[in-house]
Design goal:
The structure holds two protein chains of two kinds.
Chain A lengths: L3 H20 L3 H26 L3 H31 L13
Helix pairs in contact in A: 1-2, 2-3
Chain B lengths: L1 H10 L2 H23 L3 H21 L3 H26 L14 H23 L8 H6 L3 H9 L4 H22 L10 H10 L22 E2 L5 E2 L18 H11 L9 H4 L1
Antiparallel strand pairs in B: 1-2
Helix pairs in contact in B: 2-3, 3-4
Classes of the chains: A mainly alpha, B mainly alpha.
Amino acid sequence: MNPANYLYLSAILFSLGAVGVLVRRNAIVMFMCVELMLNACNLAFVSFARIAGNLDGQVIAFFVMVVAAAEVVVGLAIIMTIFRTRRSASVDEANLLKY
Amino acid sequence: MSGLIASIDQSGNTGEQIVFWICALVAVIGAVGMLVSRRAVHSALFIATTMISLAVLYVSLGAPFLGMAQIVVYTGAVMMLFLFVLMLVGVDSTESLVETLKGQRIAAILLSLGFGVLLFAAIGNVSVNLAVGIDGANAVDGGNVQGIAHLIFDRYLLAFEVTSALLITAALGAMMLAHRERHTPRKTQREQSQDRVRSGEPQNLPGPGVYALHNAVGTPALLPDGQPTDRSVPEPLRGVSAAVGVDHQDTLRVNTLAAGGAIIPVTQEDES
């Protein structure tokens, strides 16, 4: 089958993740949307590896996974800290950095 | 339907096509569900579905190692972390749907739609059927896992080592961010006992059911003067079984006891 179908799927997932980041107000759900975008990129990498016929794309996807795991750990810790001080996980509440 | 089957037959590799269409559908449904569900827990479950179907797609793309890593790392570790934080933050908090910026939602959806169309056009422009296939690359080292290991520990060794530094830094950062500094010294046992005495109630709260007819937790205990006390009942149960309280006979007996009198022997009528 045409491997471009995988690329189309990853484009769809990336766009859906982008909508989520822009529309949702809950910081944790926004984070999930970022994860979805990373996953879409991974899918694109893996299908590029198949199109090009070497394993480098899969290795890159592996590194993306590692970085995503590190990012989740730090990001969720930050969300927890904000929640502890503001008692809310909504991004609209965290506006003290504005001024 | 027959047209679909015919098109599948033309391009060959029917199994992969079927897997792709099913998993793609599930992945997109999961992503849309994550977008529209108001509760964060539902969003987490939806995105877990998406991640599992992506893992299946990886396997069918000839990347079994990444498929397994996807399941272990994403649905196993990352989603559990998300769920833990959700439990800490409060599961039942639903998001307010009030727009803080006017027209922001429509603008965001239009923007992302445009971005998706742009991506589609780009892919359609460059996509040619030059797919080499991953099977050859997988077979060089005798398997997908061996091939990836060869690459990671040979060409990408430096990046791999830097990754370990990144992970250690992330773990340290999470510990530092989640750590709460204690600003006041911890109370010693002596100070705690002094506080208890100063509070005017140094004794324990009365246990439920003491001196009452029943010893269920919802039954208020009787004070020495025969009055039921609400403080003996756990907070959520207070007032639930207030009616089940004082039996007159019992109160009399307790009163006599409290006054230092002799115990009234329990007769057969009392038992019944």
